[in-house]
Amino acid sequence: MNLPLLPTDNLYKFMSLALVVIIIISVSYPIIQIEQLQHRIVSLNGDQKILNREVELLKKEINLFEKNKNKTMAELIDFYRKTNQQQIKNIELMVKVQDIELTSKYISQNRILGIIGTSLGSFLAFFGFSLWYVRIQKLQDLLLKRQVTSDKEIKI
Question: At what angle do helices 11-67 and 73-131 cross, to 10 degrees?
Answer without folding.
Answer: 170
